[in-house]
Specification:
binds S-adenosylmethionine; two-stranded antiparallel ribbon; 9 strands; seven-stranded mixed sheet; alpha/beta
Amino acid sequence: MREEVSYGYKKILPSEKRRLILGHFDSIARNYDLADTLLSFGMHFYWRRRVMQRLKLKPGQVVLDLCAGTADFGVLASRVVGPRGKVVVCDISRLMMVAGQEKAARARVEKRIHWVQGDAERMGFDNEAFDAVIVGYGIRNFVFLEQGVREIYRVLKNGGKFMAMEFSIPKTAWVRDLYRLYSFKIMPVAGKLITGTAEPFYYLAESIRVFPTPEQIRALLTANGFTNADFERLTNGFAVLFYGEKREKL
Ligand SMILES: C[S@@+](CC[C@H](N)C(=O)[O-])C[C@H]1O[C@@H](n2cnc3c(N)ncnc32)[C@H](O)[C@@H]1O
């Protein structure tokens, strides 16, 4: 029997999950940024700032924005690494990156960004190519999470840093109940009004709930070689930052 993987509450074939995820993001690409801002009540700006604070990038560094979508992190990183640095934006959805290219041009950082259409679980980049890898709301969509984590470790330089931001479940019980109502009843309807389709938002609500706990992700990072792997809950746990470093003894 062929192996099935979780796709929200369903179990489906890996190839089918890849196809559905790509379809979702292609279909909402034009309105993704608006949906992100409205549906997170603008909180994602603060969460992204926290990622950048923790990452402490330096001018001249080479950074990968993986599962980059419309390249919010790529644009933020390119401002810090400056003209001597380089940012590679990588996503499976060309349409998401096209929306990001317009944003990079508006921010006047397009010359520092290289755009690569590719799969995070099988990247074409060399070993030890990047000082930092940032993944914004991406690891939850991996078909094989551990394979993606190994790939991230492989492309990081020794001393390089990994930072992922993900949606999660709030800590406080009543907030969690309210959030359940919001994510299954309100978000898909609002998402459809903004993007024209509700399906990606049902998937979003379910996928957050079947994703491993922050403690399990920390253990997975540690098991796959990351040093100082840990997490930080933001806004009562609506979002979680995961981080780790590659520190190999030479
Ligand atoms: C929720 S969006 C996040 C976009 C952006 N990182 C942000 O912070 O807003 C997730 C993105 O991951 C991309 N993605 C999903 N699975 C991927 C994979 N295996 N490899 C590369 N990109 C992937 C999707 O196409 C989509 O653009």
